[in-house]
Amino acid sequence: MERQIRLFRDIQKETYNDEGVSTNTSSEQADVEAVVYKIFCSFEHKAKIDPDLPKLNKNLHSKLLKSWLLNLPKNYSCLDASRPWLIYWILHSLWLLNDIPSSEILSSVVNFLTKCQHKEGGYGGGPLQHPHLGTTYAAVNALSIIGTDEAYNSIDRSALQNFLWTLRDVDGSFALHKGGEQDIRGAYCAASIAKMTNIYTDALFDKTAEWIVSCQTYEGGFAGCPGMEAHGGYTFCGIACLALLNRTQVCDIDALLRWSVNRQMRLEGGFQGRTNKLVDGCYSFWQGAILPIVSAILAQDDKELIETVLFNQDALQEYILICCQSPEGGLRDKPGKPRDIYHTCYTLSGLSVAQHGTGAGEATVVGSPRNELHRTHPLHNIAPHLAYNALHYFIRHPPPVNDEK
Ligand SMILES: CC(C)=CCC/C(C)=C/CC/C(C)=C/COP(=O)(O)OP(=O)(O)O
Ligand SMILES: [Zn+2]
Questions:
Q1: Which parts of the sequence belong to the Prenyltransferase alpha-alpha toroid domain (predicted)?
Q2: What's the rounded Cα separation, in Å, for the pair 171 and 179?
Q3: Quick one: how far is CA 131 from the chain centroid?
Q4: 132, 177, 231, 334: which is the annotated catalytic residue?
């Protein structure tokens, strides 16, 4: 806790702008620091009594996630167009916690996702909804986590490939749905889906890497589309998509590294999404996963870097374990915010990245050794072997040839 206490003092002086005037941004930052600092101090006392702390409340989180899979609280009705996302977030979180539901439940999930599949390819947010790249990415990831023949065979890959073609523009960008917005999430979701289901072709992603690099901003991160602000969510999509396309050399990797390492907060230990914004547990994955990808890219020139973790793994784990766990189960953005399924998934995914680093060395687990989570693939965000199993199944079972493309 030395680190936080020392840095808190430095940061207090910096909550004013260049003229020494407090701004909304600086005072919101100071408020979060004060809350986090207080939590860290009271934690320090508890940790003196119980050396097993900080503890990841695995059983509590698992129990809640399994209940969410069967019955969602009423306030989730606004996510009726995101049901494959909810399924993916729950199944991936459970996998990280080593607590996969029974095969009967998983089979009924496959059944439900099949109802969300559109006859023209891709998955909607629920039965009879229009297909969307986000929900299609979530459905493909969920089915790959389930990993049974039934799950793999439920995907109509010829129609899926047609669906991706309908969303592609001549400049290599992808719209998220027919007539919808074109942004970097579209390119990432399309590449992740196409690679995992083995429907990738060079023609489908012609110019996509060039379009993505046009989203890299003067700060070094990537924006949702050209000319906009760099953000962790979009930066993950940008660099993960370039890595999936094997085209990382087109971007400025040093600028990306500088931008992303500077998004880890000095007092809180978690990541912010963009410059001058607040820490949020979900960026533990969106920002945290960028750094092992960057290590792997840099290791192409310098092999030793494959084991080099480019962020403070302990500080991120402390933020997640001490500040993001809701006492009733589930995880959250920051203290004072309610838990939710999205933040449960991405804080746990970030915790896994922080524990396993580049995946090449030993795990570094803060607190009890029982806090260790399963590994996640930094490009697809499902377990590495589940991504591998899906891809190899689809290599062994190619879709019927699509003569039109
Ligand atoms: C694969 C896929 C679909 C990825 C999604 C990536 C992702 C999380 C994008 C974030 C988009 C965004 C601009 C959030 C800003 O929210 P805000 O202004 O509320 O938050 P902030 O203050 O932390 O920036
Ligand atoms: Zn968040």
A1: 56-382
A2: 16
A3: 21
A4: 231
* Residue 308 backbone phi and psi in degrees, to 5: -85, 120
Sequence-distant (6+) residues with CB within 8 A of 43 are 1, 53, 54, 322
ipTM of the complex: 0.98
Looking at ligand 1, which residue's alpha carbon is closest to its atom 21? 273
Name which residue sits closest to atom 17 of ligand 1, judged by CA: 273
Question: Ligand nearest 230 Cα, by number?
Answer: 1
pTM, two decimal places: 0.95
Q: Is residue 302 among the annotated active site residues?
A: no
**CA distances (Å), origin 224, targets 176, 190, 206, 300, 374:** 12, 15, 19, 27, 30
> Considering only CA atoms, which residue is closest to atom 5 of ligand 1?
233
The answer to whether the CB of 143 falls within 8 A of the CB of 155 is yes
Question: Is-catalytic flag, 274?
Answer: yes
pLDDT digit string (tens) for 204-259? 999 999 999 999 999 999 999 999 999 999 999 999 999 999 999 999 999 999 99
Cβ atoms of 313 and 307 closer than 8 Å = no
**Nearest-angstrom CA–CA distance, 254 and 378:** 19
Portion of the chain with pLDDT greater than 90, in percent:
88
Note if 263 is an active site residue: no
**Which candidate in 234, 283, 319, 393 is catalytic?**
283
Q: How far apart are the first and last CA of the chain?
A: 58
Given the residues 280, 332, 334, 393, the one annotated as active site: 280
Residue 340 annotated to the active site:
yes
Q: Cα–Cα distances in Å, from 367 out to 269, 371, 374?
A: 15, 7, 16
